[in-house]
Amino acid sequence: MEADNRWMSDPALKGIDKSKLTFLEKLFIQSQKVNFADKKEMMSFMLTLTKFSKENNISFEKNEVELIYSVIQKYADPEELPKMQQLSSYFRFL
């Protein structure tokens, strides 16, 4: 994800709780350090996310995931899309 957070100000997201958007911003920043080709590293990252989301009582409805994903795609660089697809599949289980 780009270093800025323009996507968070997209009008389509006005109904999404700001704490969820902040969580996602942190997620994308942290995901930049993760090698998703390394299954062990990816699983460690996902387990950390699960723990953090539970500790902060953050969960996403299916429609929220789909909306957020579509908005983020508008602002993402093309090379970021495969990683985004992997991350978005994770949120179906939160």
Average the pLDDT over all residues and give the rounded result: 80
Secondary structure: number of strands: 0
Overall 3D form: globular
List SSEs in N-to-C order: HHHH
Helices, by number, come to 4
Largest sheet: none
Rg over CA atoms: 13 Å
Between the first and last Cα atoms, what is the distance in angstroms?
21 Å
The share of residues in helices is: 55-70%
Strand content bin: under 5%
Point out poorly predicted stretches.
none
Secondary-structure-based class equals mainly alpha
Give your account of this protein's structure.
The protein is mainly alpha-helical and 94 residues long. The protein is 59% helix and 0% strand. It has 4 helices and no strands. The chain has helices at 18-31, 39-55, 62-75, 81-90. The two termini are 21 Å apart. The relative contact order is 0.19. The model has no long low-confidence stretch (mean pLDDT 80).
